[in-house]
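tool=predict chain=A
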Amino acid sequence: MPVVEKYSSQGKAHKISAVPPPEQVFLEVEKVLEPVFGDASSSATAVAPVSAASATTAQPVVLYSKRPSANWVSAAAACHLRISIMSCMQGNATSQAQNTTALMDMVPVMEGQLSPNTKILFVLGGPGSGKGTQCALIKEKYGYTHLSSGDLLRDEVKSGSKLGLALDATMKNGDLVPTEVTIALLKNAMIKSSSNLFLVDGFPRALDQAEIFERDILPCQLVLFFDCPEKTMEERLTERGKTSGRSDDNPETMRKRFHTFVQSSMPVVEHFEKQGKLHKISAATGTPAEIFQKVEKILGAPNASS
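tool=predict ok
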């Protein structure tokens, strides 16, 4: 990060979100490179986009000529750089796909199916927004089965299973656990519980997670979003850090978590807002009990939620 900060201060660093699919990420890369090497559509060459399907197999990048460039040296440099970047992205996509397949092969298959009357409630909010406390209150009053993707991953690691060891190695390497694996663990936990009311805490964290969850499991009925200013959340986490013993309750990690939430999770909030499923609850002020009163107004009487 000091390297990034150094070049940011020099105006040379360009931050690009790597959450979208490779072809969308590369479009952002091209926007950054355009002032340096020129527009691909007006120079001698252009790169064929990589589809999600072709990203898992080693395929050559196809170049085609539109018209001669006045500066063929610059065009050749642009071509070489684009090929290098796309080759790197293809290699990463292939590696990620192979890792996902290997991990998915370790996930146990849970017998059974979810009831067609299953109701799913997503609970979203930034770190320190108080969503964990509210989830506990919802579970107590409404009888929801509380599921946390983070807890499920940690429990699998603690179990010492083959999958747990692989997940531990993945996370210690600084890599993200593939969405498909997290969702498979959630689905197994839902089937195992025999419940038809589920409270999914802090998930989905990114738009692709929401789409895959609803494709592979079921659509959610409701989304609660606990809205809280970053300053307030930081104050709460700082106070919690005095006694929690959690390694991520420190200023540097907090800022990273806030940034990740804004970059990845806010598009999820907007997605469900457009569907009319999202209920935004101000969690900036008030006691947990006062904030829970707002939740009760949304969920209604306990028997209305079951």
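Confidence is low (pLDDT under 50) at residues 40-48, 50-68. The two ends are 48 Å apart (CA to CA).
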